[in-house]
Amino acid sequence: MPPRHVRSLTAAVAAACLTLAAVGTALATGRHTAAPAPTAVGSNWYAAAPYLMPLDNDPPDAGAVMDATGLKAFQLAFVLAPNGGGCSPTWGGTNPVATDTAVAGVISAIRAKGGDVSASVGGYGGTKLGQSCATPEATAAAYQQVIDKYGLKALDFDLEEPEYENAAAIHNEIGAAKILQQKNPGIYLSVTTAGTVDGTGWFGKQMLNEAKSQSFTPDNFSIMPFDGGFNGAASQTAALTNFNAVLRSTFGWDEATAYAHEGISQMNGRSDTGEYFTQADFQTVLDFATAHHMARFTNWSVNRDRQCTPPDNNGKTSGTCSSVPQGAYDFTRYSVKFAGATPPTTPSPTTTPPGGSCTAAAYRAETVYVGGDTVAYAGHTWRAKWWTQGETPSTGGSGVWQDLGAC
Predict the structure, then answer these.
(1) Residue 60 — left, alpha, or beta (φ > 0 → left; ψ -120 to 50 → alpha)?
(2) DSSP state of 6
């Protein structure tokens, strides 16, 4: 089986998991043909949402994870083209989104507890919609079905091999992301790609150039610094530093702006190639991410966030446990910490009034702002780069706010 086999979705296992007790009632009654509208979770939760395979790799009960950790959002994986070909969305290539009840049941359970989900499209295995659909418009239409079906407020484009080696497919994916951004104001979009010691490889850089050529800016570009000669946090933070330089040179951003559009997707425990990432490594990377006001901190995956038997899994990598000693959901708790730390803490209004002496109107959380709008907050003037609501002005978070300086 190829590398990162624990990240692929097999039809046989997916089909078997449709009878999971967590969604069995929903399937029996047919009540979950569509998920209810999401509750109001902040973009910090979409930025922190760890990946969860809802139909494969022995998925844990999402509600139990929320109760144990305080997590409010999950990144559901993966939306693909049908295994038999075509330009319609499926879960794992086998379960059509149009007729899905199983994933809808999982989403309903998460939302019933005050949480929400993002869907991840692409991944390592299977055929991607960008490969199967003829144009960016057709690709976007397929993804729009997913957004509409589940009422999504967030979407992740996981662009990696072999798809990102196909220039036409990446043109379709980036073009589709731009269309979705325009058609769904306020949607949170992340783009995830492979990590290398110099940030990302040749194909990752070509993907960034494609985004630049299409004038597309997502909420973040995230790299996956694992399965590429990494071991421990120091190698990962070095890659993040190098990736920041790649973003700066590609888009002309300064360092702070690049970090405000930069994210990381880690692998908890033992990776496919035998690298190890412990809880201490996650803490070190978390400290780096928050210190640099990075835009995203996620990991693969919640399915793996539990101890194997024996704890080292006899030196093997598993899709259902981490192969390192741990307590249940130890790694997920770092996502919760990141969500609590972003956007960065702003000065207390008692020492720096939100409006200060600025001439712009004071920022209001309930107001919708569009690109070019200015507000006053914490004694500074801020300009919105695109549509936003409820995200306090800062140099972190999604990067939507530009600090124009003190009033």
Answers:
(1) beta
(2) G
- What pLDDT is recorded for position 16? 40
Token reading at 248 = 């700066």
Q: Are 267 and 300 in contact (CB under 8 A)?
A: yes
Distance CA 304, CA 307 (A): 8
**Residues of the chain above pLDDT 90, percent:** 73
The pLDDT value recorded for residue 385 is 85
Kindly list the distances between the CA atom of residue 96 and the CA atoms of 54, 74, 78, 287, in Å, as whole numbers in the listed order. Answer: 14, 20, 12, 40
The torsion angle over the Cα atoms of residues 84, 89, 92 and 94, rounded to 10 degrees, is -50
- At residue 198, φ and ψ (nearest 5 deg) are -95, 20
- B/e letters for 62-93, b = 16+ CB within 10 Å, e = fewer, are beebbeebebbbbbbbbbbbbeeeebbbbbbb
Give the list of residues 6+ apart from residue 229 with CB closer than 8 angstroms, or none. Answer: 197, 235, 275
CB-CB contact of 376 with 360 (8 Å): yes
> What tokens does 90 get?
């499926």
DSSP 8-state assignment for residue 3: T
Confidence of residue 159 (pLDDT cuts 50, 70, 90): very high
pTM for the model stands at 0.79
Confidence band for 2, pLDDT divided at 50, 70 and 90: very low
**Residues 338, 70: Cα–Cα separation, whole Å:** 12
Tens-digit pLDDT profile for residues 282-329? 999 999 999 999 999 999 999 999 999 999 999 999 999 999 999 999
Supply 352's token pair: 């720096």
Collapsing DSSP to helix, strand or coil, 124 comes out as coil
Tokens of 284: 């070190």
Active site residues: 160
Q: Decide: helix, strand or coil at residue 310.
A: coil
Are 366 and 264 within 8 A, CB to CB? no
Amino acid at site 326: Q
Q: Which two tokens mark 255? A: 């360092």
Phi, psi of 242 (to 5 degrees): -70, -35
- Relative to beta strand 262-267, strand 73-80 is unpaired
- 77 beta partners: 120
Q: What's phi and psi for 225, nearest 5 deg?
A: -80, 70
